[in-house]
Amino acid sequence: MIQSDSLQEKVYCELVRSLYANVLPSKIMLGITALHVGLIGWSTRDVVTWGFGLAALLACALRVTMTLLHRDRAMTEVLDGPAARRLERMFAWPYYLYAVLLGAFASHVFAGSDAAAQMLTICVAVGYCAGAATGTALRPRIAIVSMVAALAPTIVVSALHFEAMHLGMSVIAGAFLTGGIQSVFTLHRAASTEIGKRLTSVSLARRDGLTALPNRLALHEYFEENALLLGSSSVVAVHYLDLDGFKPVNDRLGHAAGDALLAAVAERLRAAVRAGDIVARLGGDEFGIVQFGLNRHEEAELLARRICAAIAQPFDLAGEAVLISTSVGTVVSSESGGGNDLEALLRSADARLYEAKRNRSPGPPPVRFSML
Known about the structure:
This protein folds into 2 domains: 4-198; 216-371, Alpha-Beta Plaits. It has 13 helices and 7 strands. It has helices spanning 4-19, 24-44, 47-76, 81-111, 115-135, 140-159, 164-200, 216-230, 246-253, 255-272, 298-312, 333-336, 342-359; strands spanning 237-244, 278-283, 286-291, 315-317, 320-323, 325-332, 368-371. The strands form 2 sheets. Strands 2-3-1-6 form a 4-stranded antiparallel β-sheet, with helices on both faces.
């Protein structure tokens, strides 16, 4: 069983990783901000409005750029607490900056009397808060601070008109903001619980005795349950992997060290997959991973790279630092023709695994030993 402190850190790393999972909403918000600022600025011809608007647009562009710049690292590298905190800060500060500038721009619009501009602005501000509540809910501080910074100034300035329609809008927007904050806390609690269960494998009864991972039978059962829930149109990725250099560890350090290595590999694989996906031990030094509900095929490649990076880190076995590697074969259901037949997908992934082994360029030995 994973220790409590270690489990909390692993859950935190997964929550931070989720911030970088989907960049598309931020790109859409960039386009919306450009249209919004352009329409309002052209309509008012006000220098201050243009200043706030263009500053918000630049902050939104910076937010997208920073997310893209660090996304590959967040989605593929092995994260510990300090690394995850750095990635969270790099994501958060441009997110906060955009929210503050959007709030300033929106409140300036509401300080005026252009009803059409105000209507467009409140749509954008509330839409942004809805996106923040869903896209960053797994890190509540980022979501809530951004939502309040973007919408609260408009609520206050609108209420200061002391007119029925503006007061009503302030009340309604405040209610939406309150409900959004409550949703953020609910989503965060649910996701944290799910990730914790997955990391400790307590949600699956049929485990491999050595690694505590689900076994092949449990993998089939879990796959079938999720395939029914997600439907035939859902895209699934299956990864088949084995360890390069496992036999020399057994030969040199003994079977006990080999067993300890498999258990350590299992823990790293659990930490590498997303909430809702599953990793299982298929036998020997072979493991299978299933990703459900892929939005883009790139997600399968990112996980394969994250797996390789996780296994490439040194293992502490019997006082020695052991470096091994892994080979991964990946197949995506929409490309393989395997549909929702897990065995067919596993066979295709296994074939790609051995194809990858055959095509691998010559390099250093797959296992190295050194004293700690």
